[in-house]
Amino acid sequence: MKSLVGWTTVILALASACGGATEGTATAGATEGASSSSTGPGNSSFPTTSASGASDSNTAGDTSTSGNSDSNSNSNSNSDPTTQGSNSDTATTTSPGTDPTPGTSDPGTSTSTTGDTTAGDTTVGVSASDTSTGSTTTDGSSSGGGESSTGGMAECGNLLDATIRDFKVEHPDFEKYSGNVAYKGLVKVDLGGDQKPVYAAPGPTPQTSGPDNFKQWYNDVPGVNQAINVQLMLTEIMPGIFQYKSDAFFPVDNQGFGNEGFGHNFAFTTEIHTQFIYNGGEVFTFIGDDDLWMFINNKLAIDLGGLHPPDTQTVNLDAEAANLGIVKGQVYPMDIFHAERHSTGSNFRIDTTIGCFVPQ
After folding, report:
1. Judging by beta carbons within 10 Å of its beta carbon (0-12, 13-18, 19+), is residue 326 exposed, middle or buried?
2. Cα 340 from Cα 161, distance rounded (Å)
3. Which pLDDT tens digit goes with each residue over 202-248?
């Protein structure tokens, strides 16, 4: 009897010990599981710009358990990464590895505001520096992340990369023409296969000297023009409205062929290639002089050609969707071509509800 009691005591002790070990193992496993949730690199490949102008890598806020988490547990807790155009002042990012399906998840997961909206002219002439970490201006601002047409992450932000080509005023198309209204129809409605506007007339027009000289406007021609890269920054002037504005648009003063005796360098063209996500409801307005053509999905959307005082044209993407061949949720190219051809002023202004551009 005593032996039986002794064995019973031993068995009970062993059972108690095993139970404690099991509980301890579960606790340790839970702790290890919590600790193994890795803090991602904060989307550092696509930095956003914080309100102070500093680059926000979100290294403390983007916690990922599998590499595909959209969770921003600290710094982005007040932002909704699924809502593009929410105009939150807090930049939102998506952790690396996120691959939302095109058309089902809002691609503008990285929306940034620079916090440096100012009245008056916007400074231009900043040399572009396009690296894997985003487009960065010399003032430290940088672009964020967005969704490409293939569904992956792509560079996205409020900077427009532009090529300025400086000409001599002796060029046949510069300083020779004048006008009071826009001259429509100088270029064809379809963008050329080389991503340049196609001259529409067989020869000279009241505003141009002919197709051969026009072809030089947006192509590098040694001795005729000099190409200089700049960036134009759009700022959010009110919720959901982004603007670039300059009433003295002279991005290459004292560069290229120089000012040629004028107070500014007037004879130049501007070429911009970018992409954007069409979500529905977007509008784009240009106000300025001289020639301006804007193409969406390779179709002419704004036609303000010729010499004229500052003029305005707006395109409502919903109203023109059929003509432009665009559908919501897709990424489309936008191509902008401008020319400053006469020494009487230079104005360049964009107002748009498109807040996220992806360089081509």
Report:
1. buried
2. 18
3. 999 999 999 999 999 999 999 999 999 999 999 999 999 999 999 99
Tokens of 286: 């240009």
Residue ranges of the chain with per-residue pLDDT less than 50:
1-153
Q: What is the pTM of this model?
A: 0.61
For 146-161, what is each residue's pLDDT tens digit? 443 334 435 789 999 9
CA angle (206, 211, 212) in 5-degree steps: 125
- For residue 171, give Cα distances in angstroms to 213, 224, 228: 8, 8, 18
pLDDT at position 103 is 37
C-alpha–C-alpha distance, residues 273 and 359, integer Å: 7
> What are the φ/ψ torsions at residue 208 (nearest 5 degrees)?
-145, 160
- How far apart CA 336 and CA 350 sit, in angstroms, is 11
Task: Note the residue count of the chain.
Answer: 360
| pLDDT for 142 | 34
**Cα gap 121→234, rounded to integer Å:** 12
- Vertex 199 angle, CA 194 and 203, to 5°: 140
Task: Count other Cβ atoms within 10 Å, centred on residue 182.
Answer: 23
Nearest CA among 64, 65, 66 for reference residue 76: 64
Tally of CA atoms within 13 A in the half-sphere of 48 that contains its CB: 25
**Strand ranges for the chain from DSSP E:** 48-49, 55-56, 130-131, 134-135, 144-147, 153-156, 159-167, 225-233, 235-238, 241-246, 268-278, 283-289, 292-296, 299-304, 311-316, 330-340, 347-352, 357-359
- Cβ pair 276, 356 in contact under 8 A: yes
So what's the pLDDT on residue 154?
Answer: 59
Predicted confidence at residue 360, as pLDDT, reads: 81
Paired with 126 in beta bridges are 231
Closest CA to 251 of 330, 188, 164, 332: 164
- Amino acid identity of residue 271, one-letter, is E
The amino acid present at 72, given as its one-letter code, is N
At 160 the pLDDT is: 96
